[in-house]
Design a protein that fits this description.
single chain; 15 helices; alpha+beta; 36% helix; 3-stranded antiparallel beta sheet; disordered C terminus
């Protein structure tokens, strides 16, 4: 059975991009509530679905590593799968033997699948998804110069980058966020994909599915199916929004909103069932290229009052459209055209799951070794060296025995 890739097995089956942690931190960016499809499948290794492919991402101090798995189709009623052509590198290895003090990996067979033009396509997909054309370090400097509180937070929460998600996935994922929390939303989105999405591959007993199409979501049977899966009232919003888009606007409507002005795109989204101002702003910011969109909920309202002495609306119990607009305008004036990106750094820094980072001493990133090896901390708690070599597209590659800690 195919397994999740890990860097400790060697880098020949991976591809890489130059990317400093000041420009991207996977642990913060992928777990802060932007996307709900990424899981940490090994320490420092994040696996998820993007662009109809299954990816594992990892990073060292100045390098982003990525592995793309070969998609497979289910055949008949059994578990046999038909391989689809042309999707990156696939690793099959023998079971790992764990010992109390160390993990010894026996010699493995690493099988490489010829990929052709997909290699360049996947790199471009990843660059686009992570918006690596945006120089995050420069933005942090601008925000820090204008905002002392942000400057303090930025010393700890570096590399929080906005993803550029597929608009359909982003919209229907955020319809699930009403009166909900991140871990429960993740479960809902996974059940949605399992029920209505196409199967992609299976790794270590975990099956991965593509996000459902608009047509699948709009089917008349969807509401009942999703209610059975625990979606409650959101089931109706999901089905009705998909149907309204197809009946009134067409398949390309969400993509076309990327070229519309921010307020026009937000107001258009608000015509959909289950989409209020906050959800519309999330979709604008995270999938429609509206960097100035600042999603406001009670959490962000509390940040504004606590950390910025924002007094407007103090007598109110809920966020009105006017208060939403006023708080958004306050942050847009403070942070400029990428205010939505800056807002996400503060939102991330306020999440309960990341509070321990504020208690940790600031540690400089390790320097790259001159020997052609690089220190990494992604597979165990102590340092480990891996041989960084250029990927090879071959039928089988024998790897050296490696030792790593558990």
């Amino acid at each position: 059975m195919a397994t999740h890739a890990v860097l400790s097995s060697g880098t020949k089956m991976w591809r890489s991009l130059a990317c400093a942690k000041s420009e991207l931190r996977l642990d913060l960016t992928l777990a802060c509530g932007q996307s709900f499809r990424w899981r940490e499948t090994a320490e420092g290794h994040w696996t998820g679905v993007m662009g109809g492919r299954v990816w594992t991402l990892a990073q060292t101090h100045d390098t982003l590593w990525y592995h793309v798995y070969k998609n497979q189709d289910r055949q008949g009623e059994g578990r046999d799968r038909k391989k689809r052509p042309g999707v990156s590198l696939h690793m099959e290895n023998k079971p790992q033997k764990r010992f109390k003090g160390a993990l010894k990996k026996e010699e493995e067979e690493l099988v490489a699948v010829t990929v052709g033009q997909d290699t360049d396509e996947e790199e471009e997909m990843l660059r686009d998804y992570l918006q690596l054309n945006v120089k995050l370090g420069d933005l942090y400097k601008e925000w820090g110069a204008a905002d002392p509180h942000f400057r303090h937070i930025a010393d700890i929460f570096t590399g929080v980058r906005m993803l550029r998600q597929d608009p359909t996935e982003c919209l229907f994922s955020f319809i699930c966020t009403s009166n909900n929390h991140i871990s429960r939303i993740q479960g809902m989105v996974e059940r949605l994909c399992q029920a209505l999405g196409a199967p992609l591959c299976q790794l270590d007993q975990t099956s991965y599915y593509n996000f459902p199409s608009l047509s699948a979501l709009a089917d008349n049977s969807v509401e009942a199916r999703l209610r059975d899966l625990g979606f409650g009232y959101r089931a109706r919003f999901l089905q009705q929004s998909a149907k309204q888009i197809l009946d009134t606007h067409g398949l390309q409507w969400l993509q076309d909103l990327r070229s519309a002005p921010y307020l026009q795109a937000r107001d258009a989204l608000r015509t959909l069932p289950g989409v209020g101002t906050k959800v519309a702003d999330c979709v604008c910011l995270m999938s429609l290229d509206k960097a100035e969109a600042v999603p406001i909920d009670t959490h962000v309202w509390q940040i504004a009052k606590r950390d910025y002495n924002y007094a407007s609306g103090n007598g109110q119990k809920s966020i009105t459209d006017k208060l939403h607009r006023d708080i958004g305008d306050f942050f847009r004036k403070l942070w400029g055209p990428y205010a939505g990106w800056a807002h996400s750094v503060l939102f991330c820094a306020d999440l309960k799951k990341f509070q321990k980072l504020k208690e940790m001493p600031h540690v400089k990133q390790p320097q790259k070794e001159e020997s052609g090896e690089e220190e990494i901390r992604v597979a165990c708690n102590t340092k480990m060296k891996i041989k960084t070599e250029e990927p090879e597209t071959v039928k089988s590659i024998k790897t050296k025995k490696a030792k790593m800690c558990i």
